[in-house]
Amino acid sequence: MTTKAIPSDLPTLDDVLNRRTLPPVCLYNFYIVMRDRLHMEEILDFYLDVKHHELLWKRYIKSLQRSGFVTEEDLAEGYQSNRLLSRLSHTSSMDEKRPGLSHLSSPTTRPHHLQPPRSMDLGERSGNSIRISQSSGLSNIPVIRPPIIDPSITVTPRQPVDEEAAGVLTTESMVSGNPSVLPPNRQDLANSAQRILLKYIVPSAQKELVQLPPPIRQAIRDALQGPEPRDDPLVYADAKQYAFEAMQRQAYPKFLRLKVWGNVTLWQQLGRLAIGLLGLLAGFATSLSLIFLGYPQWHSRFGALVPFWVGIYNVFVFLTGLDPLWVLLFNISETVTFRFNKIAQPRVKEILWSRSIWLLIASIVVSMVITIIFSAIPPRRL
């Protein structure tokens, strides 16, 4: 399945990464597939960390704008324009000059109750839980990355979940200038940029992105480890675009195939194969036993229909990755083994219902054909 084969009415990768979709085609499930099925979660982690760095940069620029160090003309070409970067090239001391923020120039000097939340590492999630951890060696970095929302929480598209009530800051609250969240300073930006470098770019990093072309990796290292290290998001712009294109080309079509045309996990499929083979074995054993025990045609031999159907149904689930009864009766999709979320994306729901009906009918028809064939065989008592 290629990118060109993706129907235009399905959500795009950009929609998923910006959390504008509903389960099962959501960022939570995309991460689960990237981690458990494709083993490419480091690409998604890197992309989200760079987006968080861009968010820190935007908050920093907004704080400078409120303080009068940056004007509307400086922002005319965007938050990452060359004009703005040139304007900030000699502003390392701005944090000390801003009124009321000089005592907060270093994260370690902030009062305990104003310390920013610790970093969220997507790679340390398991199931629906979210564990907060600090990056080794950079414990003072104020990282607040938008979490992957548990899809069991029903939300409507383009409406943020009330995460602040649970103590977690959303992208919207961080950008809007929540007064309870201190704006980052230049050292925060430098720490964030270095954190990404040490985690993904340098050789033997914790989640080294071996997929990145060597020129891009070297350019990032030169920019961050040179005599005048940079901290702006443009350092990672090419790498972020490369990661996006890699996910769109390799991972996203497979994700859609698993979640739009199916609703079970790999381990569930393997389990259904075992159940299906046992069901077929029971069906063939029952039919042959009735024939060789001299039971008459038809009538009592139709009892083999049940094990035949159980076997055929589960083999179809293995082959297609779709359990029709889960969709038609419970409207659920499996995230990890025996953990589910409701199917809420409208177009995906239509596709799964249509495929489920056809698959259920096909399993019944095949089972009846096999049962009729064995019922028509004349008895032969041994």
Automatic annotation (TrEMBL):
Residues 184-257 form the RGS domain. Keywords: Membrane, Transmembrane, Transmembrane helix. The keyword Transmembrane applies. It holds the Pfam family RGS. Residues 91-131 are annotated as: Disordered. The keyword Membrane applies. The chain crosses the membrane at residues 273-295, 302-322, 357-377. This is RGS domain-containing protein.
